[in-house]
């Protein structure tokens, strides 16, 4: 399924969608600029007009995918005032995003386990581009005492790790999950990281 990238012209969007598909099939090393140009039906000169190198293309594609993901899962989230409700909503939207955009999900998984991840972390370390909305949302939860004062990487692993594992199981193992299953899973995560029951009498 092609991604409807926002504020990007048609040729650039075609290049991005083609790159996602080819990397899913051939991996980073097996995908060349000439392959992308041919499959996207654009001239090789055109692709280099937008992107000086394959590395630049992949890094910019990652940023656009991240923007797409954040736009989906954080849309109108400020209208929800209760932190717990936000916690559940964002997590479920992440699941739905992965199921609606399996090719993009696969691309991001490959990206985050590749050398590109280290490169982009260093390049954009002090830039607004490096903003991580989910990271910031969890930090907000710790500061407001909604979440336990745990290392942020533990919180991210608990929150997003369970979500990505769930997406993989549904996509690749063809296991059927219902909204009830999602409710049960995110409740387990919440019970593990929240302060909700901290002061209850045992």
TrEMBL record:
Does DNA-binding count among this protein's keywords? Answer: yes
Mind telling me which InterPro entries this protein's record contains? DNA-bd_HTH_TetR-type_CS, Homeodomain-like_sf, HTH-type_Tx_Regulator, HTH_TetR, Tet_transcr_reg_TetR-rel_C_sf, TetR-like_HI_0893_C
| Keyword ATP-binding listed | no
HTH tetR-type domain location is 9-69
Organism domain of life: Bacteria
Recorded GO MF terms: DNA binding
Q: Which keywords does the record carry?
A: DNA-binding
Residue ranges the record marks as coiled coil: none
At which residues is the DNA-binding region annotated?
A: 32-51
Protein name, as recorded: Transcriptional regulator, TetR family
Supply the source organism for this entry. Answer: Sphingobacterium spiritivorum ATCC 33861
């Amino acid at each position: 399924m092609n991604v409807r990238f926002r504020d990007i012209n048609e040729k650039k969007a075609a290049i991005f969608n083609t790159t996602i598909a080819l990397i899913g099939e051939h991996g980073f090393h097996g995908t060349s600029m000439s392959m992308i140009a041919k499959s996207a039906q654009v001239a090789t000169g055109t692709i280099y007009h937008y992107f000086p190198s394959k590395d630049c293309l992949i890094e910019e594609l990652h940023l656009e995918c991240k923007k797409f993901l954040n736009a989906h899962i954080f849309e109108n989230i400020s209208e929800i005032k209760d932190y717990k409700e936000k916690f559940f909503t964002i997590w479920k939207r992440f699941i739905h995003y992965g199921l609606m955009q399996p090719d993009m999900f696969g691309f991001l998984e490959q990206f985050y386990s590749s050398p590109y991840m280290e490169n982009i972390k260093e390049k954009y370390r002090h830039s607004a581009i490096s903003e991580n909305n989910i990271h910031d949302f969890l930090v907000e939860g710790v500061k407001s005492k909604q979440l336990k004062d745990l290392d942020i990487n533990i919180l991210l692993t608990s929150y997003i790790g369970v979500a990505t594992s769930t997406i993989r199981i549904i996509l690749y193992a063809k296991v059927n999950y219902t909204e009830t299953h999602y409710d049960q899973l995110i409740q387990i995560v919440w019970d593990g990281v929240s302060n909700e029951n901290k002061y209850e009498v045992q």
